[in-house]
Every structure is written in structure tokens, then in C-alpha cells.
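Example for tutorial group B:
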């Protein structure tokens, strides 16, 4: 009787299968799996070793053990294959998870700028005026006495010419105190009919406070044609102010400007208060004469308004200086 019995081999094969299945189940990656295949199913592996013992069996028992050995081999091979498949899939899964871009994640926001309230007020005003048929024109900020005063029917002894109000330059020129100077420059270069809007910076020797600045902005309006009347002026101003401020009540108050006759100031009512927003009037015949237009043929109207004042009324800004300090906490509100 040999020491190796059928039983022994059977139990060895069963043990081998169990061990192999356990080891395979516990392996965590493909690198751990390949040594197991060699260990159990390789040429010099454990299954081969067990089979080596078959020679000592009774020949009649061999088919039974052979069949069992084949079955064990199949089972182990299948376990290896399945585990390999599972590990490979898990590896791909892990890689995909690691490399995935989450397209639903919020992007990196770049800070985006926007127009300054003064710029947007100018842009809006010009948009409306261009819609009414006006052309945009500009003139120099350094002016001569002639364009700023004389041609605008402002006599030499007029208080507006005072050193107190105007910045005079050493060469006798000045910094324009209003955009009305562009009226003269434009009329000199063009024949009627005229519809022109002139935005720009103006300068005054004012003490800076909540409602005054030494440098501010105006937009000038000028219309010259045959047969223009105060009704045209009123209609234009009404339409313009409605486009800017909405349906607020407005009123025309008699006033005086050297370059218009008659003249008016226009107020907008907001929260029970009348706020002055604009000066206007019919162009004085002397102004028309100064540019060579015949006042018997042509009439016209003009208007001028402060952009800062508009922006302040529109956005309820309490201090003009806020418009110049570049404080982002303030500017981000617009
Ligand atoms: N130039 C005037 C100012 O600065 C505003 C003004 C009033 C302009 C009446 C005009 C006008 O064109 O007709 O106060």
C-alpha cells in the first residue's frame, strides 16, 4: 500500500481549491493576481505537484482524481479570470474617477468691469438724442474768450466773466465754463438745419462741496431751422427728460441766460421736491448773427444740462464727490 491514497489527493485538491479561491478573492490588484496563477496553476505550481502524486494511485482510481483535478483547475482558472476582469474594471473605474472633469462645477469667475455712472449717463443721453435726430459733436476744453462768452452774447461786464468764476490761463485763454461754446464752433462750420448734441468737460472756480465740483460734465443741445418755436423746445425737452427719468412731472420756469431769449430752467419733481436739471431757451438773435445766420430766416433753441446732476437725480446720489473718488464700494452699485 502506498502512502498516497485517493482520499489524500482528494483532500489535497479540495484544500488547494479553497486556498486558491481565498487568495484570489483577497488579492487587491493585478500585480498580486499573476503570482497566484503561477503558484497554483503554473508548471511547477501546486496543482502540478498534487497531480505528480497520481502515479502512485491505483490506475482504476486515476480517472476519478483526474476529473477532480480538472474541475479544480477549471474552478481556479475561472476564479482568476473573473477576478482579473473585476480588477481591470475597477482600475479603469478608479482612473476615470481620478481624471473626471466635473462640468457642473462653477467656473473661475473673472471680475468684469462696467461703465462709470457718469459715462453711462452720457451714453444714455446721447442715445436718446441721436434717436431724436441729433448728431454728436465736440469742442476744445481750452477756449478763447470769444467762443465761451462774446459770441454767446455775454457782454464784457457780465459777472460770468469774473475771475471768481472762470479759470483763466496765462496766455489769455480760459478753460470753458460750459459746453455752449460748441454751439458757436458748430454753427461756424455748418449751415442750418442743425440738430447737434455736444458732451464734454467744463471748469468752474467753485468751492467743492456736496453739489459743486471744479470740473464737471455737460451736454449741450442745439437745434436751428426755419420756423422753430418754443413749442418745439418744450416738446423736445419733455420727450428727452421722459426718456431719462421716466414719467416724472416736469416744469418750465422763466429764467435768464445771455445766449437765449426767452430762457427757462426745467425742474423734475421727485418725492415732492422740484430738482433743477436743465437750462434752455430760444437762441438769441445776436448769437445767430455772430455766426452769420439771418435771424429773420432762422430760429432755434438750445439747452444745456449737467451730467453729474442728472446722474445724482437718477441714482439718488447725495454727494457729487462720490462720482470722482473711484470708491469701488460705491461704483459697484451701478
Ligand atoms: N450754459 C448754461 C450753463 O452752463 C446752460 C445752458 C442754459 C445752456 C441755456 C444752454 C441754454 O444751451 O440755452 O449754466
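The residue assignment follows.
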Amino acid at each position: 500500500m502506498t502512502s498516497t491514497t485517493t482520499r489524500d489527493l482528494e483532500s489535497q485538491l479540495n484544500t488547494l481549491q479553497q486556498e486558491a479561491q481565498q487568495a484570489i478573492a483577497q488579492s487587491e490588484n493585478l500585480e498580486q493576481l499573476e503570482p497566484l496563477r503561477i503558484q497554483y496553476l503554473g508548471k511547477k505550481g501546486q496543482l502540478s505537484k498534487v497531480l505528480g502524486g497520481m502515479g502512485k494511485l491505483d490506475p482504476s482510481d486515476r480517472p476519478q482524481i483526474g476529473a477532480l483535478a480538472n474541475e479544480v483547475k477549471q474552478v481556479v482558472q475561472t476564479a482568476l479570470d473573473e477576478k482579473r476582469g473585476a480588477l481591470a474594471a475597477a482600475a479603469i473605474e478608479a482612473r476615470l474617477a481620478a481624471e473626471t472633469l466635473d462640468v457642473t462645477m462653477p467656473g473661475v469667475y473673472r471680475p468684469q468691469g462696467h461703465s462709470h455712472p457718469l459715462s453711462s449717463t452720457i451714453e444714455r443721453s446721447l442715445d436718446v438724442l441721436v434717436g431724436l435726430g441729433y448728431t454728436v459733436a465736440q469742442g476744445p476744453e481750452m477756449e478763447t474768450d470769444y467762443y465761451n462768452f462774446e459770441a454767446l452774447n455775454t457782454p464784457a461786464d457780465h459777472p460770468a466773466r469774473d475771475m471768481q468764476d472762470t479759470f483763466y490761463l496765462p496766455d489769455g485763454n480760459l478753460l470753458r465754463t460750459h459746453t455752449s461754446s460748441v454751439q458757436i464752433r458748430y454753427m461756424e462750420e455748418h449751415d442750418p438745419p442743425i440738430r447737434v448734441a455736444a458732451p464734454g468737460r467744463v471748469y468752474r472756480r467753485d468751492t467743492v462741496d456736496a453739489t459743486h465740483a471744479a470740473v464737471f460734465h455737460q451736454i449741450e443741445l442745439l437745434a436751428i431751422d426755419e420756423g422753430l418755436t418754443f413749442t418745439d423746445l418744450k416738446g423736445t425737452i419733455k420727450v428727452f427728460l421722459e426718456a431719462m427719468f421716466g414719467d416724472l412731472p416736469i416744469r418750465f420756469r422763466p429764467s435768464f441766460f445771455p445766449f437765449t431769449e426767452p430762457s427757462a430752467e426745467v425742474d423734475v419733481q421727485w418725492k415732492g421736491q422740484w430738482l433743477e436739471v436743465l437750462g434752455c431757451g430760444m437762441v438769441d438773435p445776436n448769437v445767430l448773427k455772430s455766426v452769420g445766420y439771418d435771424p429773420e430766416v432762422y430760429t432755434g433753441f438750445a439747452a444745456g444740462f449737467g451730467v453729474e446732476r442728472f446722474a445724482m437725480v437718477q441714482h439718488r446720489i447725495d454727494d457729487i464727490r462720490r462720482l470722482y473718488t473711484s470708491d469701488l464700494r460705491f461704483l459697484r452699485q451701478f
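The pocket of 3,4-dihydroxyphenylalanine is lined by residues 178, 180, 220, 257, 260, 279-281, 302-304 (CB under 6 Å). Compare this with the pattern of hydrophobic and polar residues in the output above.
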